[in-house]
């Protein structure tokens, strides 16, 4: 079979024998008229998740399993770290209240020795 006689879309043979791509379309056929699209009322209740990290990961060659794990465990990690931070803040608040209570009790009960002890505790 002669390959010179087969039409290849977009490829043209020049008079000097070279093959080049043809950028202009051969024939332009008009599109048939389309019907008007029906009116759709869509209620959006939540924004779609941000896929930036997934796109970066997939573009750098990381597999889909790693991306899925990141999508699943990422929000869990944020939740766990937030819970830990809240617990530490509560413990710090309780420690401050207890220290204030100890200093107040020592001041009121201890007399002059209590005032000296509260000054020592306050310095720490």
List the defining traits of the structure above.
single chain, 124 residues, mainly alpha, two-stranded antiparallel sheet
Description:
The protein has 124 residues and is mainly alpha-helical. Helices cover 55% and strands 5% of the residues. The protein is built from two helices and two strands; from the N terminus they run E-E-H-H. It has helices at residues 52-59, 64-123, and strands at 11-13, 19-21. A two-stranded antiparallel ribbon has the order 1-2. Strand 1 (11-13) and strand 2 (19-21) form a beta hairpin. Helix 1 packs across helix 2 (64-123). It is elongated, with a radius of gyration of 38 Å. The mean pLDDT is 76.
Helical amount? 40-55%
Poorly predicted parts:
none
**Rg estimate, integer Å:** 38 Å
Biggest sheet descriptor? 2 strands, antiparallel
Average pLDDT works out at 76
The largest beta-sheet arranges its strands as: 1-2
Summing up helix and strand content along with how strands pair, one would put the structural category as mainly alpha
Morphology call: elongated
Number of helices: 2
Helix and strand string, N-terminal first? EEHH
Strand % is under 5%
Compute the separation of the termini in Å: 97 Å
Total beta strands: 2
Compose a concise summary of this entry.
This protein is about 55% helix and about 5% strand. By secondary structure, it is mainly α. Strand 1 (about 10-15) and strand 2 (about 20) form a beta hairpin.
